[in-house]
Amino acid sequence: MSVRFKLFNEALPVYLTPAPFVNITKEFDKQGDGEILGTRYSITLQGTLVADRGSPTHQGLFLNTAADHIHDIDGDGIAGVEPSNLWYYSIQQKQKALMNLTSKLYEGSLLEVDPPTGLGNDGFKAYVKLESIDLPAHAPGNPRISEYTINLSADVMLGPAGNQTGDNDNWPAAGKWLVSAASETWGIEETDRSVFHRGLINGKDFIINPAVAGAQKGAVISANKTYLLTRNISATGKNEFNSDLSTGGFQEDLYSTNYKNGGKAWQQARGFVYDIIKYGNRFLFGYDGFNNQVSANAGGANDTEYTAGIHNNLVALPQDPDDVHLFGMNLPVPNNNAVGVYDNYKAYNYKRIQNVDIRSGQFSVVETWILAPYINPADGAIEATETLDVQMSEDSEGKLSVNISGTIEGLLDNADDAGVGNAANLDRDPDAVKNVKENYNRDEVNANTKYGRALEHYRKIAPFFHRTAAMIVKEVPEYAAYTISPTLASKSVTTQVANGTISYNLSYEGRVAEYHWIPYCKSEDWSVNDTYPGHVVASHVVLGRRLGPVMQGINTQTQWQRDLSINATFDTGHFNICVDSNNQYLASPKDQATCVATVDEFGVAARWVENPNFADIAVAIGNDDFTNELILAKPGNSILSTTTGDLAGITQKDTRLVQATAIKKLIDSFDPASYLTTIDHSQYTLSGTFEGGTAPKRVRKRFLNPPSESWNPVTGSWSYNLSWIYEINDPWAFETGEYVDKVDGVVNPDQDDKKDQPYSGQEM
């Protein structure tokens, strides 16, 4: 038997003689389920060094033949007859030669073991990894010999000639990768995002939940959870050595191990992982080896999607052998023919993360999908997930602040048969890298991106933010009676194009049954101040009087007075504005199409009208016509300016008249003359009750003080202030000077019932 090594950069093999005994142990790398991933061979060479013969020689040189070689150690020309003092020298040279043979320089060398037949084709060989060498002490009494043990390992056992199979477990010959361990784990978890179904806004007049009848446009009908599906595949590879031994290691670095192209451990692990990855629908919806799957609803036609074999709308088909679980590993195929059925989930937003640990030879892939309800595109597919938060806070004055915020993330249908992963294994076909890259970026090329989906969904639901906030507030018992103002108090929108998300934050104000009285205003505030009569007293200064001036009533009183102040702000920069059914100004949208698609909390569509307060500054400056363009745009003006629009329907003439009428009604409602007039005392009894059929009003006369008005056409700020003075005939506030009650015209201080109080200066 012969044992030899083929070393890098060596044309001829080197032999170990006398040939050592060869011990081989074969072990298997198994997964937890018992599947064999690979094999491991432990090879032990147990031999003996002889001082005066064999290979290596006494000079530490290996011979290129298996023939016996007798040494001439002392150089006297007579081999085999050597002085004993040179035996130790020879043994040490041979030991050093073995240690050099098992150095890193020769990691991956080819070990060849031939049987003693001499045929040269019945043995085995292997590219070996060096584990250890053991050189024990000399045998007592025999310094001519020394034993040694070399421990090697290999992952493949080859045949004697070429690289033909020497053992059935030749993984590279079978097109397999060299790995020692592998794992595949799945996880599914609920996300914090949902798919919100809103009535009648997703392209078709349908009801997602048939049990909900008469759904109003924009109303949130239901919310479906979404799930994060995670797959983690990892492997630990083993090195595959280069079969070309003409060069040792890499250029200019003889100590770098010479691996086959793609033969590093981490590359072998990567190839293994890529081979078992299934992408898109081929995995998620199952694949059972049949090219043509026939569904019951397809009328016998070839179904374009594979089936997991578990679905109430499909005929029973062969199960996918990889069908681990219905929700997670294999999803039910969406029923594209059933309108209004949304109990099936589909995978979106496929993402892959790769990790490589070069030194440990590990490679892993983490795949994630978002599982969201599938909706037939013909029904107006919802292609985004949302978070929705509504916060309510109330101050000491009962003012309610409502904050609605959320994040929209687009759903990209990139987990399909045409997506990344259908290409060949990148390690088997390096040219496929380009194709995979192009496939993976196909949606970006077509502008069909996550952000595009998110933006499209945001445009659909933006007109209904106020409605959504109002509906949620009314569901809280203590705020059921509150009305949310449609005018935004604040608004912020954040877009992240790369992540495909849009975040918004909006604030509204609410009070019990609050609406702006003045049509088309952004905000308003009005207040009333009443000043009641007081005594008129003459004051006389008396010299030396310690009590001060002498005060004397002169039998009269001060006037009644009412002050009214109105403040409001208006949009002056847009010729057209969007208003709801109650003529409440909507800060957004700013375009007609979105406006008419907007509904209020009662489900009534908004209207696109001409702005009565539009102040065309550019036209005013160009025409030197500030009166017509700016001053006449103030609230309450019913005169049409020189600027007119082409919009059919509600024109500026209409809106100005509506606004002016409302302001006039507001002022008239506080005018004392509207409810105070002269009375007849004879119609009252002694107890003060009115015996007539209709109570007369209480004002004798009233006068209007000069009003004042302020208008800023740039900011839209407007204020109007006016006051009235009037004279009143109240049954308990009699003629001048009579500050106590009287019976039948006779003053009786003892019968003062205090109903005329409080008046300034009157005793209590």
Short recap of the structure:
The chain is an alpha+beta fold and 764 residues long. The protein folds into 3 domains: 2-154, no CATH class; 179-382 and 413-448, no CATH class; 517-575 and 611-764, no CATH class.
Low-confidence stretches are: 203-214, 285-329, 335-342, 417-424, 432-447, 642-648, 677-681, 684-688, 731-743, 747-764
Number of domains: 3
Shape, per Cα inertia axes: rod-shaped
Terminal Cα separation, in Å? 134 Å
| Percent in helix | 10-25%
Separate helix tally: 11
How large is the radius of gyration?
49 Å
Strand content: 25-35%
Based on secondary structure, the structural category is: alpha+beta
What is the quaternary state of this protein?
single chain
The main β sheet shows up as: 5 strands, antiparallel
Q: Count every beta strand, where a strand is a DSSP E run of 2 or more residues.
A: 31
